[in-house]
């Protein structure tokens, strides 16, 4: 009889202890949730989450090199109907004597389309990936960005180092992207002037646009007006709306 | 008649289980915020639409519209915790030997069917069981495999260039996204069935997932 009571007491004690512990510990995720949601925003993303995105960038961005290529596809798989998602920066009329403004330290000059076309042409058929979740196999042609850098000796901070970032802007400065240097010099990153073997249409960013397969589509700026190098992060249109700055794939 | 405390769920298993609960919830919720931006999947036979993911009103009812950036931020932060907890849980079951109670035996697949018939009230007999019945063994093992599947398909669409080999193995970017989504639907179905079964099994069983023990009466 006595033993039965102690077992009952034991059961009660253990049960109460477990449930109180469970209740108290349940407050932890609720607290974390509230703490994150109450924290300040960094460019429209809650600071702890923004910092984790930057952690992901540091972790996965460093392994990006020439050995990691976006898979390429046969030309026959390229879509004829290339999807258009954004037109920011394309509304203002384009100047007749279109030139790209380059700023690399003290070296400032302008490039014409013909000058860029004189460099070796590079075609790529790859799967363009939008951050919304759709993707499409597309065919673009142009000049490798790294070739432009080497040919015009831009992007060099000094004899040994490149700048850490490239910023690109539309001529009207309505749309702009920031690209880390490893992604910019990636062999598949091109300044494109052709789509499906023909000159770009306005909606696709004529006369010249960026195509950067190692990033989500929103980094592939249409209608390049300005290219400038820096060691601080250039402004980025969608990153200011809360999206990941790195946007690497 | 005396009562006896019978240990059922080790403390570690209870921890991993309950830690996983809010993590999986946040993963699915933030995943829905992401899926909304390109919510195109449907089940269709010929021209007959059977089901669209998701029907009209679904997003507004759960408040999932227009928050892609927020969804991605939460998803790509919580994924680390979800993965770590999953790996710890898996390692624990392996090291402790608990896996022997979970992994299906040869007879489990046949018996699982009998368990389902029993639980649906169609059949009166139920095959004998250890800690988990045959259906539990099959489903709990499947859920662990699904968890790994979600991590792999997730990375295949998170870093399809840097992990291009993984994306290719899984059938390409588009297919990997479908696989990732399908697994999530699988988790949602598991969750509903799991809750129903726990309710059916009763308070004593549920309580053991918190206290770790069940009270057995012996004559």
Task: Based on the model shown, name its key terms.
heterodimer; A: 249 residues; alpha+beta; Sulfite Oxidase, Chain A, domain 2; 5-stranded mixed beta sheet; 5-stranded antiparallel beta sheet; 5 helices; 28% helix; B: 219 residues; mainly alpha; Fumarate Reductase Cytochrome B subunit; two-stranded antiparallel sheet; 10% strand; globular
Mean pLDDT of chain B: 92
- Series of H and E elements of chain A: HEEHEEHEEHEEHEEEE
Radius of gyration of chain A: 26 Å
Name of the top-level CATH class of chain B: Mainly Alpha
CATH class term of the domain at 69-83 and 95-241 in chain A = Alpha Beta
- What's the order of the H and E elements of chain B? EHEEHHHHHHHHE
**Lateral arrangement of strands in the main beta sheet of chain B:** 1-4
Provide the CATH superfamily of chain B.
Transmembrane di-heme cytochromes, Chain C
Count the DSSP helices of chain A: 5
């Amino acid at each position: 009889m006595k033993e039965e009571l102690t077992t009952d007491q034991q059961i009660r004690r253990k049960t109460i202890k477990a449930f109180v512990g469970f209740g108290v510990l349940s407050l932890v995720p609720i607290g974390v949730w509230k703490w994150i949601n109450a924290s300040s925003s960094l460019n429209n993303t809650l600071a702890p989450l923004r910092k984790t995105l930057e952690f992901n960038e540091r972790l996965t961005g460093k392994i990006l090199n020439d050995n990691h290529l976006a898979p390429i596809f046969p030309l026959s798989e390229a879509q004829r109907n290339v999807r258009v998602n954004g037109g920011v920066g394309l509304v203002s009329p384009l100047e007749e004597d279109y030139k790209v403004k380059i700023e690399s330290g003290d070296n400032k000059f302008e490039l014409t389309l013909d000058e860029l076309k004189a460099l070796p042409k590079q075609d790529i058929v790859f799967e363009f990936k939008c951050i919304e979740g759709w993707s499409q196999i597309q065919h673009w042609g142009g000049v490798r960005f790294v070739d432009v850098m080497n040919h015009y000796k831009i992007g060099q901070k000094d004899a040994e180092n490149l700048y850490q970032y490239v910023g690109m802007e539309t001529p009207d400065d309505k749309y702009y992207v920031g690209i880390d240097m490893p992604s910019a010099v990636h062999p598949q990153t091109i300044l494109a002037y052709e789509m499906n073997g023909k000159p770009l249409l306005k909606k696709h960013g004529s006369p010249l646009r960026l195509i950067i397969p190692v990033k989500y589509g929103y980094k592939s700026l249409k209608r390049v007006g300005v290219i400038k190098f820096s060691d601080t992060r250039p402004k980025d249109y969608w990153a200011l709306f809360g999206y990941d700055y790195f946007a690497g794939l | 008649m005396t009562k006896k405390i019978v240990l059922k769920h080790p403390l570690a298993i209870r921890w991993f289980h309950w830690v996983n609960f809010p993590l999986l919830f946040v993963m699915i919720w933030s995943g829905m915020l992401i899926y909304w931006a390109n919510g195109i999947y449907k089940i269709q036979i010929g021209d007959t639409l059977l089901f669209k993911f998701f029907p009209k009103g679904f997003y507004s009812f759960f408040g999932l519209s227009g928050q892609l950036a927020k969804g991605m931020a939460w998803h790509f932060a919580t994924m680390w915790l979800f993965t770590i907890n999953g790996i710890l849980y898996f390692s624990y079951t392996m090291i402790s030997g608990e896996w022997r109670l979970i992994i299906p035996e040869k007879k489990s697949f046949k018996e699982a069917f009998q368990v389902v018939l029993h639980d649906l009230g169609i059949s009166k007999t139920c095959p004998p069981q250890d800690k988990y019945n045959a259906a539990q063994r099959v489903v709990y093992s499947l859920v662990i495999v699904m968890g790994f599947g979600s991590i792999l398909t997730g990375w295949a669409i998170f870093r399809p260039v840097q992990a291009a080999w993984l994306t290719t193995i899984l059938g390409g970017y588009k297919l990997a996204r479908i696989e990732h989504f399908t697994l999530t639907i699988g988790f949602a179905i598991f969750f509903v069935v799991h809750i129903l079964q726990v309710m059916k099994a009763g308070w004593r069983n549920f309580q053991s997932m918190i206290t770790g023990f069940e009270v057995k009466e012996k004559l």
